[in-house]
């Protein structure tokens, strides 16, 4: 049988189900280990993980989304490849996302998030979190059970971040459907990590956020999205509107995984750890400690990745520029050099918040405060309204021999489903059934129109122009290559005149007027 440490983390489904055994086999080779037949190193040590996350001058975040196994779009040359990384940034998966930024761009874009997760803002949002979690839990308890991930976790965290950002109520179900139908970030399935695909949730949501940002720049409404849309960089300059769109969209999408998976992972411990749920019912103040310990033991993010852009070292291991690094956050959180009894759940573990489940340094998860609040509140509701929570043995098998399915992702550690049986607490009262709004579906993509259709750059959405071959040819005539530009995926629900406000240098009034003249000929 092939030794565990020689198997492929990025394609092996057994490792997917139990990454911890794999990382322990790697740890036995050292806290920083170069696999003989791979072109990346794996960091499992706690101290070494802190080192790589904090050494932002030496390590670029550019491969944070695509992972350490994906090939680089260039051949590294020399002891400092910073210029090469920046020259090829558009060629990296997610190279234009905040999570992959470095240096000044990261500092400036991250500064825009300052107003979103302040304590006062979270306190204001907590009323919505409390009311909505109470509604969801009450309904589930009244039914005697639920499937936690799709019925509770995903809609709950989606609606919370939507409420915080000010996403219109009528659009929230559309976002929820797009997220539910999508593969997880870091999918093990080939082809599922294409961020430019028309049905990718970042593209679907991006089309809406582009409209929100455009509207709130013209007419600020006092919500967080208005603050974000009109925020300035630290030097006083105005961000490109599409940068605001990318930040808001990624923030919305990334928040789903962090919080939804944390809720599922925590509930599994509550159910299967003997005596834990009764202890929490008697002392709900222990819930925050439980969350931190679950984040350490079973954090939502298993790993991240960095690219060495300068010759450096990790621990005492030389790391040449161009080396890809898999940073095993879940292994660092179980490093026996740092944590006593690292595999055990200990509610009063000393210095527990020093775990790295949310990362560390400049790229620490911006939404961590929100995740902690929303998951704490909904767990309080589950424990208040039940006398017992158990897993449905028909789906997951008996205690001690559970059958659990995990998302097929090399990034995310989260259950694909978790079927609960809920016994109501004494005196439980089911709330009156509410009229649930019908699920709204994403607007259909514009059907290809005949060449005789009348189009204008002020009234016709980009998606409709690109759906008609004749109109698409004219768009490319005046704006060469625009139809294949991946950035247009977030703008298909907008007109070219609206897009011009985001990129006036790329879409001049003269060129748009000329395109209008040609488009008019299609209907002649």
N-C termini distance: 72 Å
Main sheet makeup: 5 strands, mixed
Overall average pLDDT: 87
CATH superfamily of the largest domain: Cytochrome P450
The helix-strand sequence is HHEEHEHHHEHHHHHHHEEEEHHEHEHHHH
Walk me through what this model shows.
The protein has 524 residues and is of the alpha+beta class. It folds into two domains: 110-424, Cytochrome p450; 462-522, no CATH class. The chain contains 20 helices and ten strands. It has helices spanning 13-17, 19-27, 46-54, 82-87, 103-111, 119-143, 148-165, 169-181, 201-218, 224-229, 241-272, 276-282, 287-298, 329-332, 368-385, 393-396, 462-467, 469-478, 496-502, 509-522; strands at 32-34, 40-43, 59-60, 145-147, 304-308, 312-314, 317-319, 324-327, 386-391, 419-424. The strands form three sheets. It has a five-stranded mixed sheet. Strand 1 and strand 2 (40-43) form a beta hairpin. Helix 18 (469-478) packs antiparallel against helix 20. The longest helix has 32 residues, at 241-272. Mean pLDDT is 87; it is low at 435-452.
């Amino acid at each position: 049988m092939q030794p565990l440490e020689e198997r492929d983390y990025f394609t092996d489904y057994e490792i997917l189900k139990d990454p911890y055994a794999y990382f322990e086999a790697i740890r036995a080779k050292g806290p920083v280990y170069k696999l003989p037949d791979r072109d990346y190193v794996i960091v499992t040590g706690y101290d070494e993980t802190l080192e790589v996350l904090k050494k932002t001058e030496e390590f670029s975040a550019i491969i944070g989304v695509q992972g350490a196994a994906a090939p680089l779009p260039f051949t590294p040359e020399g002891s400092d490849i910073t210029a090469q990384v920046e020259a090829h940034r558009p060629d990296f998966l997610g190279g234009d996302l905040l999570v992959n930024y470095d240096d000044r761009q990261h500092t400036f874009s991250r500064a825009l998030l300052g107003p979103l997760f302040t304590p006062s803002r979270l306190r204001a949002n907590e009323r919505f979190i409390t009311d909505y979690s109470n509604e969801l839990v009450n309904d589930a308890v009244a039914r005697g059970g639920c499937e936690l991930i799709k019925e509770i976790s995903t809609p709950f965290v989606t609606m919370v971040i939507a409420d915080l950002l000010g996403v219109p109520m009528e659009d929230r179900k559309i976002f929820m459907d797009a997220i539910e139908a999508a593969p997880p970030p870091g999918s093990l399935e080939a082809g599922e990590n294409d961020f430019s695909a028309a049905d990718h949730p970042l593209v679907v949501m991006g089309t809406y956020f582009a409209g929100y940002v455009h509207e709130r720049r013209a007419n600020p409404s006092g919500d967080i999205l208005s603050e974000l849309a009109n925020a300035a960089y630290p030097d006083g300059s105005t961000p490109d509107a599409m940068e605001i769109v990318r930040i808001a969209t990624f923030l919305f999408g990334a928040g789903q995984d962090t919080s939804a998976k944390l809720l599922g992972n925590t509930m599994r411990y509550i159910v299967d750890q003997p005596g834990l749920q009764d202890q929490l019912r008697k002392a709900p103040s222990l819930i925050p400690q439980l969350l931190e310990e679950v984040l350490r033991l079973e954090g939502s993010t298993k790993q991240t990745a960095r690219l060495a852009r300068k010759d450096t070292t990790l621990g005492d291991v030389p790391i040449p520029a161009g080396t890809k690094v898999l940073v095993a956050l879940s292994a660092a959180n179980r490093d026996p050099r740092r944590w006593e009894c690292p595999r055990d759940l200990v509610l009063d573990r000393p210095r527990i918040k020093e775990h790295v489940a949310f990362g560390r340094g400049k790229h620490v998860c911006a939404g961590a405060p929100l995740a902690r609040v929303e998951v704490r509140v909904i767990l309080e509701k589950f424990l208040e309204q039940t006398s017992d929570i158990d897993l449905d043995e028909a789906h997951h098998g008996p205690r001690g021999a559970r059958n659990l399915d995990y998302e097929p992702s090399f990034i995310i550690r989260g259950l694909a489903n978790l079927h609960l049986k809920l016994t109501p607490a004494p005196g439980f009262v089911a709330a009156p059934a509410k009229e649930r709004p019908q699920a709204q579906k994403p607007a259909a993509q514009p059907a290809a129109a005949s060449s005789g259709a009348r189009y204008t750059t002020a009234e016709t959405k980009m998606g409709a122009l690109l759906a008609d071959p004749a109109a698409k040819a004219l768009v490319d005539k005046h704006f060469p290559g625009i139809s294949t530009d991946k950035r247009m995926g977030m703008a298909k629900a907008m007109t070219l005149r609206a897009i011009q406000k985001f990129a006036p240098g790329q879409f001049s009034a003269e060129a748009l007027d000329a395109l209008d003249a040609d488009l008019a000929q299609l209907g002649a």
